Fold this sequence. Notes:
Elements: E1 2-7, H1 12-23, E2 30-34, E3 47-55, E4 58-59, H2 61-69, H3 71-75, E5 78-84, H4 91-98, H5 101-106, E6 109-112, E7 114-115, H6 124-135, E8 146-147, H7 149-157
Parallel strand pairs: 1-2, 1-3, 3-5, 5-6
Antiparallel strand pairs: 3-4, 7-8
This protein binds flavin mononucleotide (FMN).
The site of flavin mononucleotide has 24 residues, from helix 1, strand 3 and helix 6.
Amino acid sequence: MILIAYASKSGFAKEAAEILAKTLPPAGLVDLVDLTQKTPALDGYDSVIVGAGVRVGAINKAAKSFLDNNRVALGSKRLGIFISNCFADSTDEVLKSSVPEELRSSAVWIGSVGGRLDTARLKGIDKMIAKAASRAVKEDQKVYDGLDHAALEELASCFH
Ligand SMILES: Cc1cc2nc3c(=O)[nH]c(=O)nc-3n(C[C@H](O)[C@H](O)[C@H](O)COP(=O)(O)O)c2cc1C
């Protein structure tokens, strides 16, 4: 039984989690849970994938609490961790500051599945920060412009 637990603000980590849920056979043995709505119990799952969107250098709070509060139980599972972000070069830094070290080393897959700084989807302060961040992007910086499907496939392949 596989648990895919995600926390997403503008929908990219959610979309990635839904793609994984469809990709991972056999259907019916995958539970998809939104961590901002519900905190799932981990008994009964031998594999867990945790996904989170990134805001200002940190993963979504609901996902951070879930990882922190379940670090012992998650350490004994086949674990995958993905983030959805837009600045590819900062992925390692975000993971280092947001994910407990023991889970970073026990995970069978950990990394970014891409994302997008989509100002059209945003409002208020988020929109302002996003616009400022896009203006600060340097020419040689790698910026994701959508989900990275190759990364998603690689992640999924660890759970077949
Ligand atoms: C206010 C705001 C701050 C963000 N800060 C970062 C950041 O520090 N690093 C990064 O790589 N992406 C950043 N992003 C881009 C998001 O991580 C990206 O849009 C991601 O796909 C969002 O995932 P979600 O929709 O699941 O929340 C930011 C986006 C917004 C709106």
